[in-house]
Amino acid sequence: MQVWNPEGIHFGFFQPWCQILSWHQYNQPWFLGDRLLEIFKFYARLRYRLIPYFYSAAHTAARTGMPVMRAMPLVAPDDPKSDELLYQYMLGDAFLTCAFSKTLHLPKGMWVDYWTGKIVKGPVDLQCEYPQDRGGPLFVRGGAIIPTWPDMQYVGQVPIETIGLDVYPSGGSAFTLYEDDGTTLAYREGRVAETRITSVATNRALTLTIQPRVGSYEGMPTTRKFEVRIHGAARPRRVTVNGRDASVAWSWDAATRTLSVPAQEGAARKKPAVVRCEWA
Fold first, then answer.
1. Is the pTM of this model over 0.90?
2. E strands along 169-223, which residues?
3. 26: CB partners within 8 A, 6+ apart
4. pLDDT tens digits for 117-170?
5. Taking a C-beta distance cutoff of 8 angstroms, is the pair 260, 225 a contact?
6. Which domains does the chain have, with CATH numbers?
7. Burial class (CB in 10 A: 0-12, 13-18, 19+), 73
8. CA distances from 20 to 3, 10, 33, 73 (A)
9. Which of 202, 213, 229, 278 could form a disulfide with 193 if both were Cys (CB 3.0 to 4.6 A apart)?
10. Residue 2 Cα distances to 18, 33, 228, angstroms
């Protein structure tokens, strides 16, 4: 990882495998100075929060051959500009970013600026704009469902009692969360839990369905809680979880236009958890 400017830090953390390479030069973050150190710490925390997303993308790569880091001709083969986009790429199904470039091309569809929440409709060419304390642009494909962990300094520091689900509604979409013990090769023998999550969004409502986990692995939590965060949402008229009114539990942040709703897997792992939000 090249850590001596914000762009290098951004690119280094948004790869399938990031490493500082401190064995041959002074790349340790405490040598960076105050500004770069804060940027490095931000990206490091973000990377750890996104581990379930990257880990699921790695499972998908192992099963299907679809790489975690995807060249634009692979993800937008019908876009005539894809062959020329050498400095940008998709990371998994959700994220589109670029490295050391002043321009960015968004393929057809709805995209959300991850840093600002601004919605952009593609296809469109953009000048790269991002906050001063970031190192590059980052867009989320409309319909994305992104699992997250709580903040931590290293894997295993805190128990994963709740999985965050960042939802960017757009039509119908789906995501499969893959989990295993994280330390052994038991996943090769099928010791994996899969959680299928689907989202159906219209102008009037959103229905998010979290299927019960299928499969198991050593040390798997007996129950699973979720914190659903719906981005770009107006204040809803009604929110239900499994058909029951959830007016006490949900919250809405007017500044970020984010709706948060807690949900939980059923104890028997037989029925899905269904979150429904209505705006009209």
1. yes
2. 172-179, 193-201, 205-210
3. none
4. 999 999 999 999 999 999 999 999 999 999 999 999 999 898 898 999 999 999
5. no
6. 6-141 (2.60.40.1180), 145-278 (2.60.40.1180)
7. middle
8. 8, 12, 16, 29
9. 213
10. 10, 15, 34
